[in-house]
Amino acid sequence: PARPPLPLPRRLHDAADHRPKPGGPLTLYRDLVSQGKLRHDVYQENVASELDSLLGRLERYEMEMEDYHTKLSMWDSTRENERRRLLLEEAEDKQHDGVWIDEKRGFLDKLISRKRRANIEPGVGRWVSYLNRERKLDNLVGQKPVAPVAPKGLYLYGNVGSGKTMLMDMFYGATEGVIKHRRRFHFHEAMLEIHDHMHDVWKRRDDGKSMESSAFSWISGLPFDAKIKEWLIGEEKYKQDKHQKHILLAVADKFLVDRQANKCGASILCFDEIQTIDVFAIVALSGILSRLLSTGTVLVATSNKAPEDLNQDGMQREIFLELLSKLDETCNKILVGTETDYRRLIPTDGSTQIHYYWPTNPDTRSMFEAMWHDITNQTGGNITAVTIPVMFGRSIEIPQSCSGVARSELQTI
């Protein structure tokens, strides 16, 4: 039996009231259609219109986020300065009271002090002092600035080849020069970056176990006894552990930061081909996306599946349902319902075709060598060996490379 026709696109706003933005995705889409480079598709045009509308809302939101990040940076700096001041006051009190200078204290004082410390469960004293310090900071510095209300993002889903990635990339290109804080990831690229950030967090934790860690360098020059400095380092370690207890939240806070420019997170995240291939993907996506969406990031995502169909194996169901709830709260779902696979309509020539030579014999080797020499002669560059840095501090040696064309044995890569 014939499949029922897919529903026509649902418009989130009145198209008659929406004027295409110059240089926006809708204008670009219509230009490509009029030039004959794209075939008109009602679903694609609807998505382009929605992306165009979102771009207009993001311009104002970007300015609001700039102001928010400025206030947040000032708040963080002031709170950290006040926190250290409170720590130093506590350290001075301990030094003046002779808490750890046992040789200057009488027998009775030492006995009372030992009993008092014995009655405190390990870790509880530090936890209480941390909470008391946080309450004081709330009163001194005030509450954390509130992020502006973010416009709803878009979750585009539909068949392969329906144009989802093309439309998202039109939108991302249109944000250049308009949205300062923006990132675009493919799913696999994002997973690699998440692993890289987790590696960094774990490495910092290991480095932080050292008393000589740079995180505690500000303590070394203070005019306190060694025992007082040890107490200060213990308080700093406790604060670090509290902040890094949930590693995915720590990763999310760094995920969209421009590492080289040390800038704040993105206002817009374009995420191509969201999928849940395993338990880690579900847990990581749920934790990180939920955190980002809760702190003002606007998501434009593509997937071959609707959100509710992403986890058909039922892995980590409770965590997955939390992600669904957050996506429903922060994104509008749009079906790109065309049944045409436009990838099959793209013309190809010899230079863009994939060549696979098999079986391995003198004839196929000769054909491969001829293709290699033909390509490298066209580029006009020199053939050299290059080293390409990859994740986690590793690198790959490419024995022959020429103007972006690489040649390597399979076992090398």
TrEMBL record:
Residues 44-71 form a coiled coil. Residues 1-26 are annotated as: Disordered. Keywords: ATP-binding, Coiled coil, Nucleotide-binding. Pfam families: AFG1_ATPase. InterPro entries: ATPase_AFG1-like, P-loop_NTPase. Residues 11-20 have a biased composition (Basic and acidic residues). This is AAA+ ATPase domain-containing protein. Belongs to the AFG1 ATPase family. Gene3D superfamilies: P-loop containing nucleotide triphosphate hydrolases. GO terms for molecular function: ATP binding; ATP hydrolysis activity. GO terms for cellular component: mitochondrion.
